[in-house]
Design a protein that fits this description.
The chain has helices at 16-30, 69-74, 112-128, 156-168, 185-198, 229-237, 254-258, 266-273, 277-312, 316-355, 358-398, 402-447, 449-453; strands at 34-41, 52-57, 62-67, 84-94, 99-109, 146-151, 172-177, 210-215, 242-246, 261-262, 459-461, 479-484, 487-492. By secondary structure, it is an alpha/beta fold. Among the domains are: 16-110, Beta Barrel (OB fold (Dihydrolipoamide Acetyltransferase, E2P)), CATH 2.40.50.140; 141-279, Rossmann fold (3-Layer(aba) Sandwich); 402-439. It has a five-stranded mixed barrel. Helix 4 runs parallel beside helix 8 and helix 5 runs parallel beside helix 6.
Length: 533
């Protein structure tokens, strides 16, 4: 069969690009502004270009989302993995891949429950790092000189704080204006806290002693800037103590946990920061009155104690009676002594006056003049003889020629050498005497019976200390001292055994006490003790 020609069709033909862009316009016109709710999935943070790409999904479908860099920077709530959020934007397609996506214009958690879940999760994570530990919190200064306030400059919060400070105790206040709500508020709060900490003490701008981070009440969305991690970390890292005063008493944020003290309201923060001036003045006056009363009571008590002690003490007349009596006696003795001394001096003067007659004075004057004349004559003779003696000495010195001096020097040198030889002879004699002394000592030690005792012998002494050399001289029951090499031992002689007779006495009398032989050694022939050496 011959092939049939294809039938003509009236369906329009589209290129791929035409169809893709037609679908793109249709979706963008139909879904120009939509709100989609779902769970964030695949969020890895902003791309290197600053744009953000992730997926919003539910149980049966998923939708790709793209957040441009400019929009991401304005987001009040940043996406987090697994968080249920509501995205607002328009549907568009990506023709190169034939898929559609939602271009996000705003992003927010899906209701207050989602925000609370996010807040609780963030709280647990920061608490695990120790940012909320009580050990990190520092005591507030009792009366700070400078107070730094981080809040909005146009709100009622700063006016309430200044008003309450003026009422209680006026202080110097530094305001760091920040936004307390909206995009970038958390970063501004963090920069303000860190900026106050960077001020140098004693610089042109005084460094605060205390910081107050304050904001009025509002919903959880309004207060969310104070739950951001950057603000919480700045408050926790502050070296200056911080009071958190965000919202009303029932509101709470994460910086309340990181701050050193939480105030229920901004006005309460001012009350915590400074005491009441009137109360301090009243307390000071009360302390002054108590101190004055205490001093008065102490003085009265000491006065009573002094009066009691004075009554127990004797009177002044009683204390001075004995010294007065001694003074009177001493005065009487002094008068008598002065009178007697004057009498002795008068008698001595009379004795001297009786000897000092005109004749005696003339005779004494004559003797002294004769003595002076004699001394003058001797002085003249000595003065005349001195030059003669000096001349003789000079002549004697002139006779000392160089040969004479050389001979005298040689004689003196010979005498010195002889003295040196005498010293050597003396040293040799001393060495010989020392050697003889050492030899005599060694001989004495050798001949001493002490050395014999060290070889096992012993010496028996009777009660009078004499050495017992004969067995027949030992009396039964008598006490003896047996001397060994290391000391003496007292012993009592026993009765000789039957059949045993004392050994005969030696024929020759020993010249000195010697030790008896040990029972184990054989006796020498002849019955004698024999030589110990």
């Amino acid at each position: 069969m011959p092939d049939r020609a294809p039938e003509a069709s009236n369906v329009s033909e589209y290129s791929v690009a035409e169809l893709s862009f037609a679908l793109k316009r249709t979706l963008e016109d139909t879904y120009e502004h939509v709100r989609v709710r779902g769970e964030v999935s695949g969020y890895r943070g902003p791309h290197g270009s600053g744009h953000c790409y992730f997926t919003l999904k539910d149980q049966s479908a998923s939708l790709d989302l793209v957040v441009w860099k400019s929009t991401f920077q304005r987001l009040k709530f940043k996406p987090e993995e697994g968080l249920e959020m509501v995205a607002t934007g328009k549907i568009t397609t990506y023709p190169r891949r034939s898929n559609y996506q939602l271009v996000v214009e705003s992003l927010e958690p899906a209701g207050a429950g989602a925000l609370m879940a996010l807040l609780e999760e963030r709280r647990k994570a920061l608490e695990a790092e120790g940012l909320f530990a009580e050990a990190r919190k520092r005591p507030l200064p009792y009366l700070p000189k400078v107070i730094g306030v981080v809040t909005s400059p146009t709100g009622a919060v700063i006016r309430d704080i200044l008003h309450r400070l003026r009422e209680r105790f006026p202080r110097h206040v530094l305001l760091w204006p920040v936004r307390v709500q909206g995009d970038g508020a958390a970063d501004e709060v963090a920069r303000a806290v860190r900026g106050f900490n960077m001020l140098e003490p004693g610089g042109p701008i005084p460094r605060p002693d205390l910081l107050i981070v304050a904001r009025g009440g509002g919903s959880i969305e309004d207060l969310w800037a104070f739950n951001e991690e950057v603000a919480v970390r700045a408050v926790a890292e502050s070296a200056i103590p911080v009071i958190s005063a965000v919202g009303h008493e029932t509101d709470w944020t994460l910086i309340d946990l990181a701050a050193d003290r939480r105030a229920p309201t901004p006005t309460g923060a001012a009350e915590i920061a400074v005491p009441v001036h009137a109360d301090l003045a009243a307390g000071l006056a009360d302390l002054a009155a108590r101190q004055s009363g205490a001093w008065t009571r102490l003085a009265a008590s000491r006065s009573r104690e002094l009066m009691g002690a004075a009554r127990a003490m004797p009177s002044l007349n009683e204390l001075l009676a004995l010294p007065r009596h001694r003074l009177d006696e001493a005065g009487g003795r002094l008068l008598r002594a002065l009178s007697q001394h004057r009498r002795f001096k008068a008698e001595a003067y009379l004795r001297l006056a009786s000897r000092l007659t005109g004749e005696s004075l003339r005779a004494d004057h004559r003797r002294r003049r004769e003595r002076l004349a004699e001394l003058s004559g001797r002085l003249g003779r000595a003065a005349a003889a001195a030059p003669v003696r000096a001349r003789r000495e000079l002549e004697r010195s002139a006779r000392l020629r160089p040969q004479t001096l050389t001979r005298m020097l040689r004689l003196e040198r010979d005498r010195l050498a002889a003295c040196a030889r005498h010293g050597e002879v003396f040293a040799r004699r001393m060495d010989a005497r020392k050697e003889r002394m050492a030899s005599a000592g060694r001989l004495l030690e050798t001949l001493s019976y002490k050395s014999v005792l060290s070889r096992g012998y012993a010496v028996v002494h009777d009660g009078e200390g004499r050495a017992v050399t004969l067995a027949s001289a030992v009396a039964a029951g008598a006490g003896y001292d047996v001397e060994f090499s290391d000391g003496r031992v007292p012993m009592v002689a026993g009765t000789p055994q039957a059949g045993l007779a004392p050994e005969p006495a030696p024929q020759t009398k020993p010249k000195r006490p010697v030790a008896a032989p040990s029972p184990q050694r054989a006796k020498p022939p002849g019955g004698g003790q024999g030589s110990l050496f």
